[in-house]
Specification:
With about 140 residues, the protein is mainly alpha-helical. The chain is built from three helices and two strands; from the N terminus they run H-H-H-E-E.
Length: about 140
């Protein structure tokens, strides 16, 4: 009886391993395509001002760890959402995020961003130490 259990377990593990190697086993329950997942992640990253904090720049998350389809979606999502944040209501002092010019005068607690790239006159005064990064965390 014990031998049968061991043989069954070894067989199951072999099937899982072979299936993974052939790309036929999906360990994640997801209904979205790699392109859609990439697009969503790229769009999320477009709203992060510090490139080091972006998903795609994290260890074991870079382009080498993703399919071409995921990366195509990521690039399109990043580009699309970055363009959305560069509309005419956005102050050019904050090129990586969309923050409207005053009024009202905003404080760091009023915006959802941290480590914002600041260039120019910084009308909201986010970059108190004038190092080019506002709302530092």
């Amino acid at each position: 009886m014990m031998r049968l259990i061991v043989v069954s377990m070894v067989t199951a593990l072999a099937i899982i391993f072979i299936s993974q190697q052939m790309g036929g086993f999906n360990a994640y329950a997801s209904e979205s395509s790699p392109y859609d997942s990439g697009y969503s992640q790229g769009c999320d990253d477009a709203g992060i001002s510090d490139p080091d904090d972006r998903y795609i720049n994290q260890p074991e998350k870079g382009p080498a760890f993703h399919t071409e389809e995921f990366m195509s979606g990521y690039d399109n999502g990043f580009e699309s959402c970055a363009q959305d944040s560069s509309n005419e209501n956005c102050d050019s002092s904050y090129p990586d995020v969309c923050i409207a010019s005053p009024p009202p005068d905003l404080n760091c607690d009023d915006v959802p961003y941290k480590n914002i790239k600041v260039q120019g006159n910084d009308p909201h005064g986010f970059d108190r130490d004038s190092d080019g990064i506002g709302c530092e965390s």
